[in-house]
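Why show two proteins at once? Because comparison is the fastest way to build intuition. When a single record is shown, students tend to memorize it. When two are placed side by side, the eye starts asking what differs. So, the first record is below.
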Amino acid sequence: MTFRYPLATSSWDQAEYEAMDRVIKSNQFTMGEAVFQFEREFAAYVGSSHAVMVNSGSSANLLMIGALFYVKDDRLRLKRGDEVIVPAVSWSTTYYPLYQYGLKLKFVDIDIETLNMDLEALAAAIGPDTRAILTVNLLGNPNDFAAIQQIVGDRNILILEDNCESLGAQVHGKQAGTHGLMGTFSTFFSHHISTMEGGLVVTDNEELSQIMVSLRAHGWTRNLPDNNLVCGSKDPDPFLESFRFVLPGYNFRPLELSGALGTEQLKKLPEIVAARRRNGEALQRAVPADSPVLLQKEVGESSWFGFSLVPRKDSKLTREVLRARLEPDGFQLRPIVAGNFARNAVVEYFDHVIHGSLDNADHIDTQGLFVGNHGYDCGEMVDKLGAVIRAL
């Protein structure tokens, strides 16, 4: 089906096709220098010391959690049974790595306006067994990390970021994804930049970055520096070192095509984010403050992955009415991420608890939806969307 206002569109032009052509002519398709160049440039762009590219944002989340089981610093290392606080609204692969590494999930409600973790609920949820908070910057909107750090105080609780939807967002003068110990990004087709499939983890911790480099490719030592923080020193004979395995890793290697695409896409990212922000500002102007539809409340500078539309709880408006008004005009619609994930049957496999009520997450689950935003002028779409909402 063709939509007049789709959720996602391509951000490629001739530069991306020429980059892929260079890779094809090089005959180097698996992870190589194009990937490593993109990692360096991406780390510099977001202001992080290290970036490790993988084949998806989902793999990035798994790699981030896995690395914490092998770090030597006791203050950073996680073990099975440790409690991790998560927001109830996110995508499935925010949660799956926690289950896969035997961690205990504690779901907390979200703020109905920002769609990020409710800070009062977070403060109340922290207990003696809490070892980490996995924050999610939803739909381009950063969390208030100054407030979260104040809540944590001097307790040894790790702050991690799933920033897969929010590349280019900023808060407190820093890029989203760089406020915690590690942060993850996705470069899937529908996200701010696209490398077909792809993801990254960034960190300022050198040991964690080297652990992830090993875990990314079979847990071997081949891609590590000669002297490193994972195995110490490598044998100077590459033949003897070629199949040396030191960690129980994966094969998350990205393709050279994806690395080359990333370098070209990164050049366009400032304007992509600026255009998305202009579209977001235009929509906020177009929707009255007393509208029965809640728009996402911006924290810092959102990169506006999409536009959430949530009927107010005290309104008679429903999601079905919104759909009936928007779909005939050609809007492609989706639920807000995965809604209240704690409602899903898969959660029965998790070691988990629910802190308090998830009323806001439930409301998002049953009543919320979002439309797409893009890295170019969406004035026509914004005007149409604003007119439909005002007519309600």
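Second record. Ask yourself what differs from the first in the token line.
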Amino acid sequence: MLVLFLVGASNYIDRNIIGVLLEQVKTEFHASDTRLGLLSGLSFAVLYASLGIPVARWADLGNRKVLITLALAAWSVMTCLCGFASTFWQLLVFRFAVGAGEAGAIPPAQSLLADYWPPMARARAIGIFNMSSTVGYGVALVLGGAIAQAYGWRAAFITVGILGGGFAPLTYFVLKEPRQDARYPLRSTDRESTLAAMRNLLGKPAFRNIVAGIVLYFLMSYGALVFIVSFMIREHGLSVARSGLTFGTISAFGAIVGNLSGGALADRLASRDIAWFARLGGWGMIVALPLYELSLSAPTIIVMVPLLFLATVVLTGLIPAMFAALHAVCGSKRRALAVAVAFFFANLIGLGLGPVLAGSLSDALSPRYGLAEGLRYALMTVMTAFVPAGWFLLRAAPHIKTDAEP
């Protein structure tokens, strides 16, 4: 768990550090908010999403330890190269490459977790692992903001790239692949064709609705949250370092409280009725929306911080339940594929289009309302995706028992 946690943290540090560097990149390359959305979203998402499914098939049939090690080394090198980009378009290309490397991280890691822990403990295990995402996000903002403030955005990319690469030997020598244990062989019946596996997954109503909920969650999460630091800078006058520290701290502590409490609650409720995995995720989405809207409407940073922290707790608390629901219905022989399919659509639409949508809305509204207010209204609009996301998860709940597969 510790090694997978470090891998996940590195993944999200390198993915999300761009969020705290956007204003400096904007200044150096004279980029619009639409271009910043392209840089922080679509550039990463295209290869991340398109490579996810073939990499997941490798994970379902091969050695996940080796795959995770190679992926970690690849994205760390590419992150370092981002710091050497001399033009906006070079930086865009290197971000494409970071996305390609990170395609080999989360699906095989979640697949290993599902093999390490039994069904009624998976939400807690996923909750602990998922803390790596928000802790990584927080570290990216805090460490990235501090380095960028002192030495510039290039030094921030290089530093976190080197940091992530240092974990590669640890993943190779410490992680265990259960399939190498004679007690847990990969049976011939587990070798399902990709087409058959996809057909089985997409034939389940619960799986389809869960994926739809995850896609809309990512649309909000990546589309809106990537601009929160920029919003703090523009609306409340914070420096890059202080805004990164503020939002990074909120994200880190909110993730700890949310993932641990949400994972424990999900396992407890699901022990009575497995449909609660989907129900808890659905209601969590709906409750999170007004909390985020209120935080963006706050008149001062003092008012914004506690509202944003509470929203973060609710949001991160529903994630273990949402992914536990996915693992409950996908079946053991297609775990990585199930996560990769969800991430394919979630990242291509959510990560790929979310920031571009938010940035374009901001550019469209800013001439009339100003940079700060235009961004505020854009983020509040994108966050309404929470409601249909929750609705899809609630639709999945009645089908969980029928579609469940060990």
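One difference worth noting in the second protein: The chain has 19 helices and no strands.
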